[in-house]
Specification:
Order of helices and strands: HHHHHHHHHHHHHH
Shape: globular
Radius of gyration: 20 Å
Structural class: mainly alpha
Number of helices: 14
Distance between the termini: 19 Å
Number of strands: 0
Strand content: under 5%
């Protein structure tokens, strides 16, 4: 199938809007903790290299499909019209508001409304699993790391090279597994098989959007990260990225069906905050001074609103899709 103008515009909008919204969960801690320490050019080069490798591997091992085979339940529409541009535009609007919207719900269900139930089931199970992992990890042992971070901050001093290496490695792992999960939200606008020249162009477009994201520092979604205990410290950021990367890796191994990685991330952060506050009487200052539980409710409220809006927009788009096809 040839690529028409609406497919191209949809891909461009999805490439930026999906990464801009999901930068909260994948690159948020990395961007915050490296803001005044690492040149943006170095960050861009690192992330673009990882992106190119993951896209190339997906395209190579899945017969020209860079989405790693996750678009099988979502066939390309026979008539691709302007109505399919509504989902990525809605993602941009919700991102500007700072809502951690599920891009999987908003984009994928516009192409396959029947998948809403399975997407909701996989996303909620992912949230609960990540919540339990965060609660156990920080409740049983990682709270000691947070206390150490609070008592011995780096401030303006350069962190030890070991922590820098660890953070960049965990960020590379996290960004890689996120792309395996969520590239479907971007490449759903293109044919399921791309030739080599088209793949090169798509990789350049994704990398340009990524560089823009690094330039603006992640946008309004960063407020969710900045509100969490010690999240701007490189050591805490490394622990968060490592645990979230392992959660997504486990989800990828258990099922190839897409899910909302945003809900998985919010589950991990929620479990982490409650696990930390459970040690407020154990001499852990950041556990006492960290964000109140009400802050987690605000995150969930915005995520729930984003989910509802995503489903409503996806379903409301269907009549317009049918009308525009005639």
């Amino acid at each position: 199938m040839s690529i028409n103008i609406w497919m191209l515009i949809g891909f461009l909008l999805a490439a930026y809007s999906v990464m801009a919204n999901d930068s909260l969960q994948t690159l948020g801690t990395y961007l915050v903790s490296n803001r005044s320490r690492t040149p943006q050019v170095a960050q861009m080069a690192f992330l673009c290299t990882v992106t190119s490798v993951v896209l190339g591997l997906g395209w190579t091992f899945h017969a020209g499909d860079p989405s790693w085979g996750r678009l099988t339940p979502f066939p390309l529409p026979t008539a691709f019209t302007w109505a399919y541009l509504i989902p990525p535009l809605a993602v941009l609007a919700l991102t500007a508001w700072g809502a951690p919207v599920s891009t999987s719900f908003l984009v994928l269900t516009s192409f396959g409304p029947a998948s809403i139930g399975k997407l909701l089931e996989s996303s909620l199970s992912g949230y609960l699993l990540a919540f339990l992992i965060g609660l156990l990890a920080w409740g049983l042992g990682f709270w000691l790391l947070e206390r150490w971070v609070f008592q011995q901050p780096f401030d303006d001093q350069a962190p030890p090279p070991l922590w820098t290496v660890l953070q960049w490695c965990t960020t590379g792992l996290l960004w890689s597994v996120w792309m395996v999960q969520d590239l479907a939200n971007i490449f759903i606008y293109l044919p399921r098989r791309l030739n080599a020249s088209a793949m090169v162009v798509c990789t350049l477009i994704v990398c340009i959007g990524l560089c823009l994201l690094v330039t603006i520092g992640g946008g309004p979604m960063q407020r969710v990260i900045q509100s969490k205990t010690n999240s701007t410290d490189l050591r805490s950021a490394t622990a968060i990225d490592a645990m979230f990367g392992l959660c997504l890796l486990g989800q990828s191994l258990m099922s190839s069906f897409p899910l909302s990685t945003t809900w998985v991330f919010l589950g991990l952060l929620g479990g982490r905050e409650i696990g930390l506050r459970s040690h407020g009487q154990s001499g852990c200052s950041p556990c006492m001074n960290g964000p109140r539980i009400q802050g987690l409710g605000n995150d969930l409220w915005k995520a729930a609103v984003g989910l509802i809006v995503s489903v409503v927009v996806a379903l409301a788009t269907q009549p317009m899709i049918r009308w525009a096809a005639h």
